[in-house]
UniProtKB/TrEMBL annotation:
It comes from Cerina litoralis. Transmembrane segments: none annotated. One of its GO terms (molecular function) is hydrolase activity. InterPro entries: AB_hydrolase_1, AB_hydrolase_fold. This is Alpha/beta hydrolase.
Amino acid sequence: MKNLLDKCLPLIYGVYLNSLSLISTKKASEKAFRVLLTPRKGKVGPSQETFLNAAKERRIQIGAITLQAYKWNGEKETILLLHGWESNSFRWHRLIGKLQEENYNIVAFDAPAHGYSSGKLFHVPLFAECTRAVIEIFKPKYIIGHSVGGMTALFSQYNYVESPVVKIVGIGAPSNLSAFMGQFQKKLHLSNKVMQGLDDHFADKYNFDTEEFSLERFAPHLPQQGLLIHDVLDSITPFQGSANIQRNWPNSQLVKTEGLGHSMHQDMVNDHILKFLKA
């Protein structure tokens, strides 16, 4: 029953939004915006509590949002970890173990509307604003981000001239917002009219449309060393996106895997990250 409901709900939302757009494109796009940016998962589960509670560091206020930060103390460089959509800082527990063995100082935080952090909506500009605030507190030299966290890692450093970050790792990161929007349209069967209204809404709210928000466009301006890891069979974020970013990022490298999926928790991935950090 739950699987059937999960399949039907997007279609029901789509019919509703398409119908509403015939009356008011503006109202339909505003509601689509909230549907698109409202996570349904990602809060801390019972099996994750012990690991995260032991590392709680502080609560950080960013406007109306309260972020939960975590810290695993070490004597080497500080690393900031950014999780992805409908996840939380627990997703890093395997990598954190390896980083602790190397004595790195590790920081993470739950994104808005995820984990122990407050908020209802989640999007990259907001995540990037939070990331910059956390960077200013903890001064990490390295950032590692998975999926949307990888996109945020790169975007947060775009035009951040005085950033202390010297290396960035993006794992299975989407390359542009328009591709993500295309997946959203396909899942909900939204009309082009709704999507155009949604694009206009983004432009009004953030001063860029979905075509302009592209890591391929931002990458040439990144002075940091970069490592991109992406699976060619990733069904969530296409591999070609990372290939395009790497081609435009002057000081970066791309590791291609096959059969590891989108989550990328495997030792092979973590070993590539450690090698890059030590180089």
